[in-house]
Design goal:
Shape: extended
Helix content: 40-55%
Number of strands: 11
Number of helices: 12
CATH architecture of the largest domain: Roll
Strand order of the largest sheet: 6-5-4-3-7
Strand content: 25-35%
Largest sheet: 5 strands, antiparallel
CATH topology of the largest domain: SH3 type barrels
CATH class of the largest domain: Mainly Beta
Length: 309
């Protein structure tokens, strides 16, 4: 980052928070505190009303903010919640861009609302699931979205569910998130069909300047095209009491719909990435739950029971 960009970013940061410490700015921009002091002096000399207190930090005189955009307190809190979700569920590059956007949102708020945002920051926490993997390649999401906008081909190295790595050229259509993974849906030149790839299995991703070879349908129409690990629809029936008890867990198992039957039982539909996992789920609730489809789940249940015997 050059000095002009850094000073501009510092100004936005000063407008976005009640107090900003020199040490925090130095860490953020990767420079020394002495450099920060020089940049603050430059802002002051340019007419920016910067106030500094030894040992506390820097702030701007109340009323100095960028017009014309203003947000309500409720809108700002919703952005704060989104920021925490993005920090946990996307890659570091995407998080950095969102934080910069959040600084601009904070910068246009009144002092009292800025303080409210600062207070609320510590009252909202999003915890990453142990099953949610860290991305192996930074900036995957941004790179993929840019390739979609530019209609250019991506080259990548991909490891499938059988641990076999292959080189692929793909034409990205879109990205989706289904807990706990991000997925890329794309036209695969190797397979000559639309496939869905788990982002955590991409070990290399390179954006090329080669254009797409065809027009692609919408992402919505392609959801479910998975590489060797297709979503499987699993339908079960369970008691109303069990459905209530396992409501939260059912969501993470892939529950997409449920309805009450005439006999009072609940029919649930799951979109599962693992038939074995669903088999263990049904078996664990065997006293109240029966399988409707597919029969492959029952085959897994029989195999599991053999080990128990």
């Amino acid at each position: 980052m050059n000095r002009l960009d850094r000073i501009s970013a510092m100004l936005v940061q000063l407008q976005s928070r009640p107090i900003v410490r020199a040490a925090d700015m130095a860490d953020r921009f990767g420079v020394s505190q002495r450099t920060i002091y020089r940049d603050i002096r430059t802002l002051s000399e340019a007419g920016v009303p910067v106030c500094g207190d030894a040992g506390i930090g820097y702030s701007l005189i109340e009323g100095y903010r960028l017009p014309p955009l203003m947000f309500t307190r409720e809108e700002a809190i919703s952005f704060l919640m989104a920021e925490k979700l993005i920090e946990q569920l996307t890659d570091t590059h995407n998080t950095l861009h969102f934080r910069q956007g959040m600084d601009k949102i904070r910068a246009v708020m009144r002092g009292v609302d800025k303080n409210y945002m600062s207070d609320m920051d510590g009252s909202i926490s999003i915890y990453r699931s142990r099953r949610t993997p860290a991305q192996k390649v930074p900036n995957l999401l941004q790179a993929i979205l840019e390739s979609i906008n530019d209609s250019t081909i991506l080259e990548m190295s991909y490891t499938n569910a059988e641990e076999v790595m292959s080189g692929r050229e793909v034409e990205a259509v879109g990205i989706t998130y289904s807990h706990p993974y991000w997925y890329l849906t794309a036209w695969c030149h190797l397979r000559r069909e639309y496939r869905t790839f788990r982002l955590d299995r991409i070990s290399r991703l390179i954006a090329t300047i080669k254009p797409h070879t065809k027009e692609h349908p919408s992402l919505k129409s392609l959801v479910g095209h998975d590489d060797t690990e297709c979503l499987t629809e699993v339908v079960i029936r369970t008691s109303k009491e069990k459905a209530k008890q396992t409501a939260d867990t059912s969501y993470f198992m892939g529950l997409v719909g449920e309805k009450e039957l005439p006999d009072g039982r609940i029919e649930q539909t799951y979109m599962s990435y693992s038939i074995e996992t669903m088999a263990r789920w049904v078996l664990a609730n065997a006293d109240t739950t029966t399988l409707v489809s597919p029969p492959e789940v029952n085959d897994w249940i029989k195999q599991i029971i053999k080990y128990i015997e």
